[in-house]
Write a structure and sequence with these properties.
This protein has four helices and six strands, in the order ββββαββααα. It is α+β, with helices and mostly antiparallel strands.
Length: about 160
């Protein structure tokens, strides 16, 4: 089983940092990711998703020291859903969040005329291969390939008699 998520986005507000009684640091923060598309009328639509994140120990310390509202960041982690019942109302609640296992600090785009996502991807491409995890490197290599090249590859064991 695989439980892995990668997010490239911006902090929505300053991180909230705390310590447990035993001294373990943890930080809560939210990341906004944005997707743009054209609807059936050709109008550009933008949808923003908010992701709750929690970081522990060293990563929590890095988040609290270097990130603030608006900071661009690349986060890897796993999904965790917490469930509880409201004591007064009895309503069942849940919250799915990302438990951060890897964090990459990215430079902030000061020139608003450029596409910030494209700038972040270009920055990641320039990082030395040895500093990238295999997943990040795979993502970058995937982005370099053309969709047609991927579609032409045959999948072992798959039928090539598609109905379209």
């Amino acid at each position: 089983m695989i439980n892995k998520v990668t997010l490239l986005g911006y902090l929505g507000k300053d991180p909230e940092c705390s310590n447990l009684e035993n001294g373990t640091k943890f930080t809560h923060f939210s990341i906004a990711t944005t997707e743009s598309y054209k609807d059936q009328h050709g109008e550009k639509k933008t949808v923003t998703e908010w992701h709750h994140c929690e970081a522990w120990r060293g990563i929590a310390e890095t988040v609290s020291k270097y990130l603030k509202k608006g900071s661009p960041v690349l986060v890897e982690g796993r999904l965790k859903t917490e469930k509880w019942e409201e004591p007064k109302t009895g309503f069942k609640r849940s919250l799915t969040k990302v438990v951060v296992t890897s964090l990459t600090l990215l430079p902030k785009n000061e020139d608003n005329s450029k596409n910030p996502t494209a700038d972040l991807i270009e920055y990641i491409k320039q990082l030395p291969t040895e500093t990238l995890s295999s997943f990040k490197q795979g993502f970058i290599e995937f982005r370099k390939k053309k969709v047609l090249d991927i579609a032409k590859k045959e999948v072992p064991g798959a039928k090539n008699d598609l109905p379209f």
